[in-house]
Design brief:
The chain is an alpha+beta fold and about 575 residues long. The chain contains eleven helices and 23 strands. The chain has helices spanning about 1-5, 15, 35-45, 65-80, 130-135, 140-155, 170-185, 205, 260-265, 275-280, 525-560; strands at about 25-30, 50-60, 85-90, 160-165, 195-200, 245, 285-290, 300-305, 345-360, 370-375, 380-385, 395-415, 420-430, 440-445, 450, 450-455, 460-465, 465-470, 475-480, 485, 490-495, 500-510, 510-525. A seven-stranded mixed sheet has the order 3-2-1-4-5-7-6, with helices on both faces. Strands 8, 9, 10, 11, 12 and 13 form a six-stranded antiparallel sheet that branches. A four-stranded mixed sheet has the order 16-23-22-19. Helix 4 runs antiparallel to helix 9 and helix 6 (about 140-155) packs across helix 7 (about 170-185). The protein is globular and about 75 Å long.
């Protein structure tokens, strides 16, 4: 299968553009979540020349020693070129931990399952608090929030990727406490630091995704199945709103033995993480962007009744219980009193603001539903909005013309149900966030990101489409060699009878520097069958080997579990 493996030369402007001078920060709870959440994106930014940092909120010390997990994380990250690592040093727990999770204790320290009550590191890795202040932090929510806030301001990364509300208690705690820390920064008087923030899932779109790696063409991350622990479909987490990043050739391909993400996962021997590579490796990586340029963060907010303070927070979703598998969202919204005849929210700024876009969402829980809203500005402009979407999904309203104002009033004009309110309000000066990620595009086939795409030689046409990030400009799609085929006005690719491959390019009509290229290969039946057989053999051999390696690792841990200096230095299996 050497012929296909050696291809991978198609181009994409996002992957090719330099990121020299940019700082990227990835925040995850456990050592192995960094690859689950953002392995391919970290590798891409390393190749683009960015300074990439990774921070772990816990020591991963629930079953294995902290030093073991730290060494595994270092070797895994080094495999993809990341050398700048922070360990916050908090305790690794399981859901329903009897000692109580620090999430439930604002200032009172708890004892972790590993028996610690304050942050700690190892001989080779100091915890963040000790690095910065020469003292350890206590295991409580306020301390973790303080450490995250300190880390974010210390690095001032241009882009932050952070874990979201997965089913695991540590993931949920890391997500919510990060958003609290980020909110403290954004609402600080005079704040000018507004990083580009992406939230993503380490489980439902990665570790817990289908085993779909082995195919003729690599699949993009599929829509997760509906589960009680999922928040997809709620608030801003609509599947159509996800941000999809393309991946480099070393992170895709047809075989795992030469995939850099597989080799990075293999370094997490204690977690047998490489067994899940067939779930984790996809043709894209998926996040949801959280805009930090919301003008409400620097505004004064009041209401005719109820408490509107939550609308100024960076946090949109909240949980009171992080242990139950079923997501039970806390009431994190403004609810006007039923006897309030005004039902208004007042927003004011010390200086005039330019507003071009408004985003607004109703309450997520189904107590009631707002049917009509009025938004008025102090310059006399008034806009009427119809019913807000259900499930707290966000409505975007582009103003017919930009407004320069000092205050705004949001009034509920009509509603139904016993309790209705607002979970989010956003006022923005720009339609798109001024992002540290330049606009980019990616060609799609069957809604999967296409790179080197294989089709049977008997197929004469192929439908393509384009994914766009932060741009709605018109796109030009064309063939790079007309003798092999062409693309018609409906984005259908046509092959000439003897064509074996066809390079397709898409670019913004007014900005050809924003582009994507793919190569569609027409392969005979025998070749595709041979590819399928080789993938089947690799799958069986790797699975057998990795299961034996898992057994060996855990037997060794059982009898040498107190030997923190034991490192896992077994070379990767290569077919």
């Amino acid at each position: 299968m050497k012929k296909i493996i050696e291809i991978g030369k198609v181009q994409n402007s996002f992957l090719n553009q330099s990121a020299t001078g940019q700082k990227i920060l990835v925040i995850v709870p456990h050592e192995d979540d960094e690859i689950n959440l953002a392995g391919s994106i970290m590798y891409a930014y390393v190749q683009k020349g960015a300074d990439v940092y990774c921070a772990f909120t816990t020591n991963g010390d629930y079953s294995f020693a902290a030093s073991t997990r730290m060494h595994e994380a270092e070797r895994s990250l080094n495999k993809i070129g990341v050398t700048k690592i922070f360990f916050l040093g908090y305790g690794d727990t399981a859901n329903h931990y009897s000692g109580g999770h620090l999430f439930y204790h604002e200032n009172e320290a708890v004892i972790s399952p590993a028996g610690h009550q304050e942050t700690y590191g190892s001989v080779h890795f100091a915890d963040y608090a000790f690095q910065m202040r020469n003292t350890h932090s206590s295991y409580c929510r306020a301390a973790m929030r303080c450490d995250l806030e300190s880390l974010i301001l210390f690095l001032k990364a241009d882009i932050i990727f952070c874990v979201d509300l997965d089913v695991h208690a540590d993931h949920r705690a890391a997500s919510i406490i990060f958003e609290e820390a980020m909110g403290n920064i954004l609402t600080r008087a005079g704040n000018t630091y507004q990083p580009t923030v992406f939230k993503g899932f380490a489980y439902c779109t990665s570790f817990g995704a289908p085993k779909d790696f082995y195919a003729h063409n690599i699949y993009s991350v599929p829509l997760p199945k509906e589960k009680d622990d999922s928040i997809i479909g709620l608030s801003l987490y609509e599947w159509k709103s996800r941000v999809r990043f393309p991946v480099l050739p070393e992170c895709r391909g047809h075989f795992l033995h030469d995939n850099i993400l597989y080799h990075a996962l293999f370094k997490h021997a204690s977690q047998s993480a490489a067994l899940h590579a067939v779930r984790i490796v996809n043709g894209d990586t998926v996040f949801w962007q959280r805009r930090t340029d919301n003008l409400i963060y620097q505004a004064q907010i009041d209401a005719s009744s109820g408490n509107p303070d939550g609308l100024k927070e960076f946090k949109i979703l909240d949980l009171n219980n992080i242990d139950e598998s079923t997501v039970s969202l806390a009431d994190h919204a403004w609810y006007p009193s039923m006897n309030d005849t005004k039902k208004e929210i007042y927003i004011s700024w010390p200086n005039k603001q330019i507003i071009s876009l408004i985003k607004i969402a109703g309450n997520i829980k189904s107590y009631g539903h707002i049917k009509h809203l009025t938004i008025s500005f102090d310059n006399g402009s008034i806009y009427k909005l119809d019913a807000l979407p259900i499930n707290g999904q966000i409505m975007s309203f582009k103003l017919p013309e930009n407004q320069q104002v000092s205050s705004a009033c949001v009034r509920v004009e009509g509603a139904e149900g016993s309790r209705y309110g607002l979970s989010f309000i956003g006022f923005f000066a720009h339609d798109y966030e001024i992002s540290a990620v330049n606009p980019y595009i990616k060609l799609l086939i069957n809604d999967d990101f296409a790179y080197d795409y294989l089709i049977p030689s008997s197929v004469n046409t192929c439908q393509v489409a384009v994914y766009q990030y932060n741009t709605k400009e018109k796109i030009h799609i064309y063939s790079l060699d007309d003798k092999d085929g062409w693309v018609d006005s409906n984005c259908v690719v046509h092959f000439t009878p003897d064509a074996h491959r066809l390079y397709i390019r898409a670019e913004l009509e007014n900005n050809p520097d924003c582009y994507d290229e793919i190569c569609i290969h027409r392969m005979n039946w025998h070749y595709l069958q041979k590819l399928h057989l080789c993938q089947y053999v690799e799958d069986k051999l790797l699975t057998f080997y990795l299961k034996k390696h898992r057994k060996y690792t855990h037997i060794r841990h059982k009898y040498l579990k107190n030997c923190d200096k034991i490192l896992y230095r077994i070379d990767e299996f290569t077919i």
